[in-house]
Amino acid sequence: MYETVPGAGLEVGDVVLVEAGDVIPSDGEVIEGIASVNEAAITGESAP
């Protein structure tokens, strides 16, 4: 079952489905599949 929850409503242990193009709402780890994340807003580097 999926439900939409604001980022502030996330709790430790929640599993979040993130699809291509989505904004990731929190720190976390990929538990299935692969991910490439543009961290330029955090690191200041232009390369993803």
Summarize this structure as a short list of keywords or feature phrases.
about 50 residues, little secondary structure, 1 helix, about 10% helix, about 0% strand
Note down, in words, how this protein is organized.
- The chain is low in regular secondary structure and 48 residues long.
- It has one domain.
- The protein is built from one helix and no strands.
- The protein is globular.
Number of strands: 0
Number of domains: 1
Rg from alpha-carbon coordinates: 12 Å
Tell me about the biggest sheet?
Answer: none
Number of helices: 1
Give the ordered list of helices and strands: H
What general form does the structure show? Answer: globular
Sequence stretches where pLDDT stays below 50 over 5 or more residues: none
Indicate the mean pLDDT: 85
Query: What share of residues are in beta strands?
Result: under 5%
Helix content: under 10%
Oligomeric assembly:
single chain
For the termini, the CA-CA separation is: 32 Å
Coarse structural class? little secondary structure
Short description:
The chain has one helix and no strands. It has one helix spanning 40-43.
Layout of helices and strands, plus pairs?
Layout: H1 40-43
